[in-house]
Amino acid sequence: MKAIVHIGLKPGVLDPQGRAIARSLTDLGFDSVTGARQGKVIELDIKGNDAEKARQDVTDMCEKLLANTVIESYRIDIEN
Amino acid sequence: MKAIVHIGLKPGVLDPQGRAIARSLTDLGFDSVTGARQGKVIELDIKGNDAEKARQDVTDMCEKLLANTVIESYRIDIEN
């Protein structure tokens, strides 16, 4: 089973990486870009077939290790 | 309009960040995790309403700046 975890900065949190990307793109001539935010995706291989248990486990992983919940939010997709 | 760019290492490319995540998770007692890969997501705000043009522009951005196409692959989703 696969769990896809999307982690991004919460709205309002300053995103210097995103700003650097937006600025570099406009410097390269891509004038249509008005903003950019960068997040990360972690793809986990999980043993077993219980999607509900997997979701619970991955939520625990996010809270304990994967996300900094002070400034980041996360979303979990489970795929069989 | 929003463009969501998913960038990940190509299959077979060593992913030390993913390995570190998988190892840390098993060290924390999450034995169900058998592997992890880390990628990134860039969310771009794009002016205009032409989805086809936006996709073409974002493809150019990926080739020129956002992705290292030697080792990374990318996927673009356009949202209105």
Short description:
The structure is a homodimer of 80-residue chains. Chain A has 80 residues and is of the alpha+beta class. Helix content of chain A is 35%, strand content 38%.
- Summed over residues and divided by their number, the pLDDT of chain A gives a mean of 96
Whole-number count of domains of chain A: 1
Low-confidence stretches of chain A: none
SSE order of chain A in H/E notation?
EHEHE
Global morphology of chain A: elongated
> What is the strand content of chain A?
35-45%
Q: Count of DSSP E strands of chain A? A: 3
Within the CATH hierarchy, at the fold level, what is the topology of chain A?
Mth169, Chain: A
Count of DSSP H/I helices of chain A: 2
Q: Structural class, from secondary structure content of chain A?
A: alpha+beta
CATH class of chain A: Alpha Beta
Q: What is the gyration radius of chain A calculated from CA atoms?
A: 16 Å
Please give a structural write-up.
Chain A has helices at residues 16-27, 51-66, and strands at 2-9, 33-46, 72-79. Chain A is α+β, with helices and mostly antiparallel strands and 80 residues long. A three-stranded antiparallel beta sheet of chain A has the order 2-1-3. Chain A contains two helices and three strands, in the order E-H-E-H-E. The model of chain A has no long low-confidence stretch (mean pLDDT 96). Chain A has a single domain, classed as 2-Layer Sandwich (Mth169, Chain: A), CATH 3.30.1280.10. Chain A binds chain B through residues 6, 8, 18, 21-22, 24-25, 28, 30-48, 54, 57, 60-61, 64-66, and chain B through 6, 8, 18, 21-22, 24-25, 28, 30-48, 54, 57, 60-61, 64-66. Strand 2 of chain A pairs antiparallel with strand 2 of chain B, so a sheet runs across the interface.
